[in-house]
Write the structure tokens for this entry.
Amino acid sequence: MMNQNMKHISENIDETLFTFADYDQSAGEAIGYSNYSYWQSTIQVFFKNKVAVFLLILIVLLLAFTFIQPLLPNQKLPTKIYNDPATNMQYRNVTPNSEFWFGTNSIGQDLWSRIWSGTRTSLIIGFMVGLFEVVVGIVIGAIWGYMRKLDRVITEVYNVWNNIPTTIVLILLTYIMRPGIFTLIFAMSITSWLGMTLLVRNLIVILRDREYNLASRCLGTPINRIISKNLVPYLVSVIMLRMALAIPTAIGLEVFLTYIGLGLPVDIPSLGNLVNEGRMLMMSASLRYQLFFPAIVISLITIAFYVMGNAFADAADPRNHV
């Protein structure tokens, strides 16, 4: 009886009141649409940190000035020895004045030009070593983490190479190769990637088998989309922090190698050479300025990159995005 009534009602309904809807995939996805952008959110969070933004501007200006400084008027050469025209004697250990803004060293060279030239050299070394560490570390670490068949082989290679003290490798290479900027970059690069590689490998091993990644693979999601959407946002924060710290670390290694006599030749200004020269004069109160100025530059670079690295690491964490 009920079926007959339902049939009677359906026959009396005007069919023009209802139409069949076609399936539209884009319309279905529009319901869950969000204008969220990972990199845009990261930049927004980073620029909310006023201290990090100030140090970023300071480092950019510092880097730009190191290249602009030689082109400015009335600039002295960093390797030239200047003499007093009245006595024809070298301007030795002249304290800062209107002519020599940072004073001179023990042989009459202008410290102002030497510090900026040395900063340029040290930053080039730091950036090159940091770039090598990031690129090689990420590539080998990603392969190490994803390719289960290569895990044992790469682990053994890593253990052998990592058990060799970094200082021994640096000393041997600087002894074998001709001292220079390329030698320092090469010596630091072949050991610096180990830490980044292990870090990336461990992070990928932790993330690769999580439920959302397994579900993505089961649904046929391309591996490049899994990496860019599921893994990279969780790796960027740590990678950027490591990269930011790699630059001052490389500068510190250059200072250390110069301190033990294996750094750049004295005719190539660098922060390591300047600190080493000033260290030998630090017991004399009137000559401490030769250590004071390069030490300030190194401290500023180290602190700036450390603060910016931490700030960007926090900004790159998706959990801090609104």
